[in-house]
Design goal:
This protein has 460 residues and is an alpha/beta fold. 25% of the residues lie in helices and 20% in strands. Strands 1, 2, 3, 4, 5, 14, 15 and 16 form an eight-stranded mixed β-sheet that branches. It has an eight-stranded mixed β-sheet with strand order 6-7-8-9-10-11-12-13, with helices on both faces. Helix 4 packs across helix 5 and helix 4 runs parallel beside helix 6.
Length: 460
């Protein structure tokens, strides 16, 4: 009996493998590996867990890259002990809206890689393919206590492409920064930006009604694409049970529709740049029409007007503390916005940056919200406000099972502050990622400098 040919063997192997389904996550997989570190016990600090608790005179134990314990009188064992007396300890800050790496410093034309302004719908592009790990902004964000961030495309397009979640570590490649297991996100934009960008070129959309028509047309295409792939995957060919010569051919891959089909399947989270309350309501109806879930509205100057509806829908609002009035759709913002969206039961308010400078002081941005909220009679203690930077942010980008809270088993992403983090005088003194001590305000050897900055004078 003759041996099978190489071609026959290859065909058999290929049929045994699963088809490359839309929104497949195998490509450009994370190669992130935590920095090796020994156990650490931070003792006798004021601890904000991120889950709504404040523990005075408490300890935090980190072991094997995870939180091993939070409470009073923890045994040190073989752990390095850090005196937390007079210090505050929080989970690492998470910024859900950043353009670090895709609009890096220095801000020159050659570095403008965040907006693929070639069509209103560019769902095929991925922000991670533009991220420059040498952006000095990553190190300055770390000094502000930021341990994870979601990097998004810009807002020129109706659908701008995929965002990526990164661990804030010094690395040579974006894959070495990618948060393991984090879902991709989809960046969408409503309102002025897309209609201005394309309307000024005599293209569609040039109105808000053109915006909505563009979203609907894209998702109608995606529905058909998804059905074609689902039919193929459910059939004998998709299950690898037919001979190669009889196998049905899979649908033609389309990178743009891969992403949108991933949204329809619930594999990719949806984040929408949207300011006005009426437009957010329209986007909620769009999501209902095509049966996908919106994770968060970003910027949302008028989110306070529909705070009840956002809470009921389980949609987060990632907002600025006080940016408003810089264009018409941002005109009706108020400084109490975040405080009003943060409903105690279902509300999900987040403080975000959208800025290479603002990301360095998100704790102070949150403090502004506390002050404005308290002036209208709301009770916003530190143990509640810290959620805007940690647990709520982790929830919105799909990593709450791993980080955002000081709880046993979660990633040991931890910040030691010189005092109350919501004081203008507070500094992030130490920052740990997965239990590794990666930043120290008092130790230049633990203040990362990108390759781009090596050999350049840095102000002390």
């Amino acid at each position: 009996m003759s041996s099978p040919s190489k071609a026959t063997l290859l065909a058999a192997v290929l049929l045994a493998l699963p088809a490359v389904a839309p929104a497949a996550e195998q490509s450009f997989a994370s190669t992130y590996r935590p920095v090796a570190s020994g156990p650490v016990l931070i003792r006798n600090a004021t601890v904000l867990t991120g889950s709504g608790a404040r523990l005075d005179g408490a300890d935090v134990l980190m072991r094997d890259g995870r939180i091993a314990g939070v409470g009073k009188g923890l045994a040190a064992g073989d752990a390095t002990v850090v005196d937390g007396t007079g210090k505050w300890v929080t989970p690492g800050i998470i910024d859900v809206h950043s353009h670090l790496g895709v609009y890096p410093s220095p801000g020159v034309t050659a570095h403008e890689d965040g907006n693929e302004m070639t069509a209103p719908v560019t769902a095929q592009v991925w922000a991670e393919h533009s991220v420059w790990p040498q952006d000095p902004g990553f190190a300055t964000a770390l000094a502000g206590g930021v341990t994870s961030l979601m990097v998004l495309p810009g807002s020129a397009n109706l659908i701008g492409g995929r965002g990526t979640v990164l661990k804030n570590v010094a690395a040579l490649t974006v894959q070495d920064m990618k948060f393991p297991g984090a879902p991709h996100s989809l960046k969408m934009a409503c309102g002025e930006n897309p209609k201005r960008v394309y309307g000024s070129q005599g293209q569609s959309p040039m109105t808000r009604m053109g915006n909505l028509a563009g979203y609907r047309a894209a998702f109608i295409e995606a529905q058909a694409y998804r059905r074609a792939w689902d039919k193929y995957e459910a059939g004998p060919a998709g299950k690898g049970r037919r001979k190669a010569k009889d196998a049905d051919q899979p649908p033609t891959r389309d990178l743009r529709l891969d992403t949108l089909a991933g949204v329809l399947r619930g594999e990719i989270t949806v984040h929408i740049h949207c300011y006005r309350a009426d437009e957010m309501a329209l986007m909620l109806d769009l999501a209902k029409e095509f049966e996908f879930k919106i994770a968060a509205f970003h910027h949302g100057s008028e989110a306070y007007k529909i705070a009840d509806r956002l809470a009921e829908a389980g949609v987060c609002a990632a907002l600025w503390a006080d940016w408003w009035g810089f264009k018409m759709e941002a005109y009706d913002g108020i400084q109490e916005n975040i405080a009003l969206v943060d409903r105690p039961d279902k509300g999900c308010a987040i403080v975000h940056s959208d800025s290479a400078e603002g990301i360095q002081r998100l704790n102070q941005e949150a403090a502004k919200v506390m002050v404005r909220g308290e002036r209208i009679g709301l009770e916003l203690p530190p143990e509640r406000a810290i959620r805007w930077l940690t647990t709520n942010a982790a929830r919105a980008i799909g990593i709450a099972d791993q980080t955002g809270e000081l709880a046993e088993g979660k990633m040991a992403d931890v910040v030691v502050w010189s005092g109350n983090p919501f004081s203008v005088y507070a500094k992030a003194e130490r920052v740990y990622l997965d239990g590794a001590w990666l930043y120290d305000i008092n130790d230049r050897s633990k203040q990362p400098v990108s390759d781009f900055m090596l050999g350049r004078e840095v102000a002390p």
